[in-house]
TrEMBL record, chain A:
One of its GO terms (cellular component) is cytosol. The modification Phosphohistidine is found at H79. Functions as a two-component phosphorelay mediators between cytokinin sensor histidine kinases and response regulators (B-type ARRs). Plays an important role in propagating cytokinin signal transduction. Gene3D superfamilies: HPT domain. GO terms for molecular function: histidine phosphotransfer kinase activity; protein histidine kinase binding. Histidine-containing phosphotransfer domain (HPt) contains an active histidine that mediates the phosphotransfer. PROSITE patterns: HPT. Transmembrane segments: none annotated. GO terms for biological process: cytokinin-activated signaling pathway; phosphorelay signal transduction system. PANTHER family: HISTIDINE-CONTAINING PHOSPHOTRANSFER PROTEIN (PTHR28242:SF51), PHOSPHORELAY INTERMEDIATE PROTEIN YPD1 (PTHR28242). It comes from Theobroma cacao (Cacao). This is Histidine-containing phosphotransfer protein.
Automatic annotation (TrEMBL), chain B:
Pfam families: Myb_DNA-binding (PF00249), Response_reg (PF00072). This is Two-component response regulator. It comes from Theobroma cacao (Cacao). Residues 167-176 have a biased composition (Basic and acidic residues). The keyword Plastid does not apply.
Length: 146, 681
């Protein structure tokens, strides 16, 4: 496929990610930071996020499933996770985190568990979409014009 | 700045100040700002790092608070600002904030995804200079350099203030400089006070990027402990050793407490002096001073106060006038400084002292002026200017007034002193406000009040008067101005401080010019000319003035060393005042102030006369102003702007005459090429 066409596809996908609420303004901030010095900055950050947040996801999972729930600790973890996800512009994920924290402060275990499932789901969906997206970006970069 | 004669410190201060004034900021600033960013979240950390790099800052990142602290400890001056997350696993962000504040006194910005009010509040109370909500946008980071500049500026101010103040207090001990008066900062103990009392630090101020020595940061809590200890002991009996014992804070040295105490005392004095109305601190300082001012009243007629009140006259100017007027008679309390009470405290206290003592320092003047020069640059323009001017003027005024010539030096010293410490606007204001009466003697002082005043006094070797609480001279300037004016606090206290400096400087210069004029002025109420100057000053952009005037005034002073005439003082005062006013407000208020001042002498009220006066003053001012600008840091040597012979009566009469007919004044004053049209009446 010609470069132009690929680039067009990239643009479309990007647009839909925003339109569907997967990504927000913060993602654009990251894109703007990308420059010649760090040409793959956005992708690197996203990768870093997913690597680092895996650890957090695990901690939350454990806190929810192992014995009596320590809500403050849970809130702590989720606070961190939310900070991270909001930094990359993962809108849906961050929104679910907020819901989770509400249940947490209400000490609603069921609510927490349920919401956490949502968090994980959104987290996974976004991951896939971004993987596709970056792949397209890479393809467009190396494609020959047109 | 420790110069024994005050010069030394001033120079030091100057240099630092110079740096500070803003012109120093390296051209590429804020590029190269050294930022330490601390966040346990690697994603955020990386994003922040990239953002900060994009802002052209030098970034160091670390993911643990402990690491950050050791980095900071190892490179005390290696960073300009710290950005830290609130939530970290090994240490709470607020704890880190406190540590940094105490040990390194660097500005710290907190960050968190949590935007809850109480968390933000916590940041504020712990001393964070800003709080960012995550996700952080690059726009938020672009301006973080302001915190660095602000902090430095404040510290500088403190430095100067305490420096001057202390000098004042100390009287002949100049060496203490280290202590910057936190108090000067209106009780802003926290941030600026961080400055340690080391003189070295002051010297190091030149290095904008960071002071080399770790300073004790007087956090709110620490200060509260300090205050509690002092209150427990009783302000009079509170000695550093005992305070230290009571406070029982590990790591705090007697020296830390001593310098902090000095500042605190100044602060108290300022409060008590300034606000007779509001003072919460009851300070005995004021009373003695007030008394002295009494006799000045005649001068008060000058309406310096009014001028000061209007803020037209830079507090300094007023101080100058007052000093001039009062100087002779040491009227002290008579003058009702209309100006902001606060300000007056400073000015007034010193003025009185100054006059007598000022004289000896002739030479100091020069030096002092220089000092001021230095200051203006660094200080925030306004502030510096005010201080300087004030200091100068006051110095001059005082000198003249009291010592008959010797004063000159004193004044200069005063001025310089004042100039040196960042003239806190506040100080000026304060001084001006309440001390108006003090003017006469304090004229010199008022200028000092700005912060320098204190120093000035000391420098000159003038006895305490100036010092009063140490604030006086500089701040007083404002007040001084007020004095003459019987109006109550017309002078916007605030305006003076800033403006004063410049104004004062102006005055000083004027003083110089005044020489010729002074003689003439005598009859005509020498002050009038000054007003013109003020007007002129007003015309000029206040801000510029501040810096400029500062320099200028000194210059003028120098030139006018020969000012011996009584009028000089008056004129000087006026001039200074005028200038100050101009500076301060940058509005035509000075003119008004001037007018008022003039009127006070006589009727003090006619604005109309003021106009005339202003007119005269304008000429004077104009001229001075011009001079000032160019000279900038002229050697304020001659504080002798104020002729010492001027007795209050002389001044008063001069003023009165002025009022009645500016013409006479004009004629008499032979201002060099002053054009009187600028005075916006």
């Amino acid at each position: 496929m010609g470069r132009n066409r690929l680039q067009h596809q990239v643009a479309c996908m990007r647009r839909s990610l925003f339109d569907q609420g997967f990504l927000d303004e913060q993602f654009i901030q990251l894109e703007e930071l990308q420059d010649d010095a760090s040409p793959n900055f956005v992708q690197e950050i996203v990768t870093l996020f997913y690597t680092d947040s895996a650890r957090l996801i695990q901690n939350i999972e454990q806190a929810l499933n192992n014995g009596p729930i320590d809500f403050s600790k849970l809130d702590d973890y989720m606070h961190q996770f939310k900070g991270s996800s909001s930094s990359i512009g993962a809108k849906k994920v961050t929104d679910e985190c907020k819901v989770f924290r509400e249940y947490c402060s209400a000490e609603n275990a069921q609510g927490c568990i349920r919401t956490f499932q949502q968090v994980k789901q959104e987290y996974a969906i976004l991951r896939r979409k971004l993987e596709v997206y970056f792949q397209m970006v890479r393809q467009a970069d190396v494609a020959h014009t047109p | 700045m420790n110069s024994s004669s005050g010069k030394g410190s001033m120079s030091a201060a100057s240099s630092s100040a110079a740096w500070k004034a803003g012109d120093v900021v390296p051209d590429q600033f804020p590029a190269g700002l050294r930022v330490l960013v601390v966040d346990d979240d690697p994603t955020c950390l990386m994003i922040l790092e990239k953002m900060l790099r994009t802002c052209l800052y030098e970034v160091t990142k670390c993911n643990r608070a402990e690491t950050a602290l050791s980095l900071l400890r190892e490179n005390k001056n290696g960073f300009d600002i710290v950005i830290s997350d609130v939530h970290m696993p090994d240490m709470d962000g607020f704890k880190l904030l406190e540590h940094i504040g105490l040990e390194m006194d660097l500005p710290v910005i907190m960050m968190s995804a949590d935007d809850g009010k109480h968390v933000v509040m916590k940041g504020v109370t712990h001393g964070a200079c800003d709080y960012l909500i995550k996700p952080v946008r690059i726009e938020a980071l672009k301006n973080i350099w302001q915190h660095v500049v602000r902090k430095r500026k404040n510290e500088w101010k403190d430095f100067e203030q305490s420096g001057s103040v202390e000098e004042g207090d100390r009287q002949p001990k100049q060496s203490e400089e280290a202590d910057y008066s936190s108090s000067a900062n209106e009780g802003n103990w926290k941030s600026s006070k961080k400055r340690k009392d080391d003189d070295d630090e002051a010297e190091e101020r030149d290095d904008t990027s960071t002071l080399k020595k770790p300073r004790v940061v007087w956090s709110v809590e620490l200060h509260q402990q300090f205050v509690a200890a002092v209150n427990q002991l009783g302000i009079d009996k509170a000695v550093p050793k005992k305070i230290l014992e009571l406070m029982n804070v590990p790591g705090l040295t007697r020296e830390n407490v001593a310098s902090h105490l000095q500042k605190y005392r100044l602060y108290l004095r300022r409060l008590s002096g300034v606000s007779q109305h509001q003072s919460n601190l009851n300070n005995s300082f004021m009373s003695p001073q007030e008394a002295t001012f009494g006799p000045l009243s005649p001068l008060n007629g000058l309406d310096l106060q009014t001028l000061a009140a209007t803020g037209q006259l830079p507090a300094q100017s007023l101080a100058t006038f007052q000093a001039a007027g009062l100087g002779r008679s040491t009227a002290k309390s008579g003058i009702a400084m209309p100006l902001v009470d606060q300000r007056n405290i400073f000015s007034f206290e010193n003025p009185k002292l100054r006059f007598g003592e000022g004289q000896q320092q002739h030479m100091n003047n020069n030096k002092q002026l220089n000092l001021l020069h230095g200051i203006p640059t660094t200080m925030e323009p306004k502030q510096l200017a005010s201080l300087h001017h004030s200091a100068q003027s006051i110095g001059n005024i005082n000198m003249q007034v009291t010592s008959h010539g010797v004063q000159g030096s004193q004044n200069n010293s005063l001025l310089i002193q004042m100039a040196q410490p960042q003239p806190r606007g506040q100080i000026l204001n304060d001084s001006t406000g309440s001390h108006a009466p003090r003017l006469p003697s304090t004229l010199g002082q008022p200028i000092l009040s700005n912060g320098i005043a204190a120093n000035v006094s000391t420098r000159n070797g003038i006895p305490e008067n100036i010092r009063g609480p140490g604030y006086n001279p500089v701040s007083q300037t404002s007040s001084l101005l007020n004095f003459p004016m019987n109006h109550t606090s017309e002078l916007p206290g605030n305006s003076f401080p800033l403006g004063t400096t410049p104004g004062i400087s102006s005055l000083t210069s004027k003083g110089a010019f005044q020489e010729d004029i002074n003689s003439d002025v005598k009859g005509s109420g020498g002050f009038m000319p000054s007003y013109d100057i003020f007007n002129d000053l007003n015309q000029h952009k206040p801000q510029n003035w501040e810096l400029q005037n500062v320099g200028m005034t000194f210059d003028a002073s120098q030139h006018s060393n020969s000012l011996q005439g009584n009028l000089d003082l008056a004129q000087s005062i006026l001039v200074q005042q005028g200038f100050s006013s101009g500076q301060m407000n940058g509005q035509n208020r000075s003119a008004a102030v001037v007018s008022k001042a003039m009127f006070s002498a006589g009727d003090c009220t006619e604005q109309g006369n003021a106009q005339n006066v202003n007119h005269h003053l304008n000429n004077l001012l104009v001229d001075n102003t011009i001079r000032i600008k160019s000279e900038r840091v002229a050697d304020a040597g001659p504080a002798n702007l104020f002729p010492d012979h001027f007795g209050q009566e002389d001044l008063m009469s001069a003023l009165l005459k002025q009022q009645d007919g500016i013409a006479p004044a004009e004629n008499e004053f032979d201002f060099d090429g002053y054009s009187m049209d600028n005075i916006p009446v």
